[in-house]
Each structure stands twice: as structure tokens, then as C-alpha cells.
Specification:
This protein has 335 residues and is of the alpha/beta class. It is built from 11 helices and 10 strands. The chain has helices at 22-31, 41-51, 57-75, 95-111, 134-148, 169-179, 190-198, 213-227, 260-268, 281-290, 313-331, and strands at 6-9, 36-40, 78-83, 115-119, 154-158, 184-189, 233-238, 240-241, 269-270, 297-299. The strands form 2 sheets. Strands 3-2-1-10-7-6-5-4 form an 8-stranded parallel beta sheet. A two-stranded antiparallel ribbon has the order 8-9. Strand 5 (154-158), helix 6 and strand 6 (184-189) form a beta-alpha-beta unit. Helix 1 (22-31) packs parallel to helix 3 (57-75). The N and C termini lie close together (6 Å).
């Protein structure tokens, strides 16, 4: 059996705020055996500013994208996606953000990335700024899809577990069908699917799972396998999570106003099968692969430890990501 191509998110291998350069992260990903890099805009933006400090923001990003593409080619790794294009799908005043979206499409072309990832609107967008109706979401997504299509770029649409207009894969599926564009599909994420259905971040005594977590998640996943066709999935993100401190006392970036699930996601996401993982991420993996999906898989985690300035962070987290992927391959019977 031919395995899916495996990528790792650039923020997985050290945050830029920790002093980890994009070249160091690309090199770590390549050395660990990854086929691709899921490039976070944060990494591209900070690299671009450092590379072209006197350029306009748009020109700096264009130059930065060209440089990242060169580094990826140098280390033999593909930039498979640019993410996350936030604060767009549900906003009422979409025009300015749509213009930004056209720049992101251009950047994808420079990077060689064939995927632009779009999460539905989340905090800190204000409820008064959005129209959560599925028809409005579909119109905005279709508009950007039409701009991306001539460039051969797919839109990967995702509902974070704390999404404002929607927070489940089922709701995303409805909007995708309403948008009705061939280059729009799902970005499925093990954390978001499991956390919103089975997670209980306020109850550590229950191991961060609802008492009926297993049957609740099974019902959602059974529906997924009979609803989503493999060609409707643009790519698949893998992560789990460990224990969270909602007081955020030791976290490098604090925001006590953000939703609890966002705090959990931003500080505690680790790889599937790692010690301390509390979500049922492997169950999600089995369901998605049961659809027959064979496209890109990306290891995408967020963790407070990634802000460490320790130079071993990129290699350590890249190796952990590949070790996790190998366990997922075995547990899902993909060999």
C-alpha cells in the first residue's frame, strides 16, 4: 500500500518567538523524513519582515515566499499548504479581507503550495462582526474559490472546536455543498473533531473526556465515513492533547478571555499516541482513512513548550512527529 504523503506544520518545530528560523525548521522537517511543510503565515510573515525590513508588507511577503520556496527546494521538501486564512468566511464586511485573500493565493503560487487553508471565524472576532448563516458563509467561500481556481489552488475549509459560526465537520460539510465549487473541500483535524464532541476541558477528574465520550465520538465518526467521500477531503491534520491549565499561569502567551477550548488547543496539543495524550485521536484517524482517503496528512500541534529558545526544539519536535506518524500508520493498518 502506498502511504499518504506526510507533512508537518512549521509551527510544530519551534515558534518564531522562540528564535527558531524558518530554515532551521525546514531542515529539521526534512531530516526527520517529512515530505511536506504546512507553512503557517506567522512563520512566513516574520521571516519576510527580517528579510526585507524596508519593503512594503506585501512586497516583503512576496520576497519572503520566494526565499522559503528556495529553502524548501534546497532541503528537498514541498510547501504543501499555506495557513490559516482567518477572519474571512463569516465577516459581514468581507471586501478588504477578500483582497488579502487574493494576495494569499498569489503567495501560494510563489511557494508552490496547492492548498490554502481557511478556518471559520473564531475569537477575537466579535459576534456583531459576523453573519453566521450558511448562505453567507458559502457566498464568501465560493467567491474566494473562484479567485483561487485559475491558479490551481484548493481551499481547505475547517471548523475549529471553538468556531463562532460553526464548530463541527457536519456544519462545514453543509457550507461546502452550498458553495458548490470543485476546489473547495474539508480540512479535517483530529483535535477539533474529538474535542468538540468528546472533550470536557473543565473536568480533569474525568481525564478531559465526557462520561459518554466514546459513543458520542463513534456516532460522529460513523456519520463521517458515510457522508464524506475521500475526494472531498483536501488534507487531514493530526494531533492530540495533554492536560490543560485554564488559569494559564505558566503559558508564554496568555489570554483569559479566549474560549477554554482555544486555551487547550493553543498550549497543549501534542502528537497522537504520545504519553499524556487524552483525546481519542486515533479513532478519528481510523475513521478518516476508512473513507479511502490517501491525500496529504499533516502533523499539526500547538504547545507552550514550542516557545522555548532551546536549539534542540526543531529536531526534537520533528522527530516526535515522525515517530507519532509511524505509530498511527501501524494502528490504522496503513502498511
Amino acid at each position: 500500500m502506498v502511504l499518504p504523503k506526510i507533512a508537518i506544520a512549521s509551527i510544530n518545530v519551534g515558534r518564531a518567538a522562540g528564535g527558531h528560523s524558518i530554515e532551521t525548521k525546514i531542515k529539521a522537517a526534512a531530516n526527520a523524513g517529512f515530505d511536506g511543510l504546512e507553512l503557517a503565515f506567522e512563520c512566513l510573515d516574520l521571516h519576510s519582515q527580517a528579510l526585507s525590513p524596508n519593503a512594503t508588507p506585501y512586497d516583503a511577503l512576496r520576497a519572503g515566499a520566494k526565499d522559503v520556496r528556495g529553502l524548501a527546494d534546497q532541503y528537498g521538501i514541498e510547501v504543501m499548504a499555506l495557513q490559516p486564512f482567518m477572519r474571512y468566511d463569516a465577516v459581514k464586511e468581507w471586501q478588504e479581507r477578500f483582497e488579502d485573500g487574493k494576495l494569499w493565493i498569489e503567495l501560494c503560487g510563489v511557494l508552490g503550495a496547492k492548498i490554502l487553508q481557511i478556518p471559520t471565524c473564531t475569537y477575537p472576532v466579535l459576534p456583531s462582526q459576523i453573519d453566521p448563516t450558511p448562505s453567507h458563509l458559502a457566498e464568501n467561500i465560493a467567491r474566494l474559490a473562484d479567485a483561487a481556481a485559475p491558479h490551481g489552488i484548493q481551499l481547505a475549509y475547517e471548523a475549529p472546536a471553538w468556531g463562532m459560526a460553526m464548530d463541527t465537520w457536519q456544519e462545514v460539510d453543509n457550507v461546502i455543498k452550498l458553495a458548490n465549487r470543485p476546489n473547495v473541500g474539508h480540512c479535517l483535524d483530529t483535535f477539533h473533531i474529538a474535542a468538540v464532541v468528546a472533550g470536557d476541558v473543565t473536568s480533569p477528574s474525568t481525564s478531559y473526556l465526557k462520561p459518554d465520550a466514546a459513543p458520542l465520538l463513534k456516532a460522529s465518526l460513523d456519520e463521517l465515513t458515510t457522508t464524506i467521500k475521500p475526494n472531498e477531503i483536501v488534507y487531514f491534520q493530526l494531533s492530540d492533547a495533554n492536560a490543560v491549565d485554564l488559569s494559564q499561569k505558566a503559558y508564554p502567551v496568555k489570554d483569559l478571555d479566549q474560549p477554554d477550548l482555544m486555551t487547550w488547543s493553543r498550549n497543549c496539543r501534542i502528537y497522537p499516541c504520545e504519553e499524556g495524550a487524552v483525546l481519542l485521536s486515533v479513532d478519528v484517524c481510523k475513521a478518516v482513512f476508512a473513507t479511502g482517503y490517501k491525500g496529504w496528512v499533516s502533523m499539526e500541534v500547538f504547545h507552550a513548550d514550542l516557545y522555548s529558545k532551546d536549539p534542540s526544539v526543531p529536531d526534537e519536535w520533528a522527530k516526535r512527529g515522525m515517530d507519532s506518524w509511524k505509530k498511527v500508520v501501524e494502528l490504522c493498518g496503513l502498511k
